[in-house]
Write the structure tokens for this entry.
Amino acid sequence: MKLIFWIVRLVIFVFLLGFSLVNTNEITLNLLVDYRLKVPFIIFGLIFFVVCCVIGVFAILPSLIRCRVDLRQNP
């Protein structure tokens, strides 16, 4: 079973590596007040992924804290 998980991880890694190598074109981000930022597409995707992960963690944090408090009160 561990071998299957490692094969799946390897396939995902190779797919993401290939995706990042293909998408090296620069894109222009138009920010506030006529400020433009040129970044490679893969960097933009990575930043977007990290920001979404942080938002997801903050979204689940209240219910996680509530569950931990309930477990401490009712062992």
User: Anything to note?
Assistant: DSSP finds two helices and two strands in the chain. The helical segments are 2-22, 41-73.
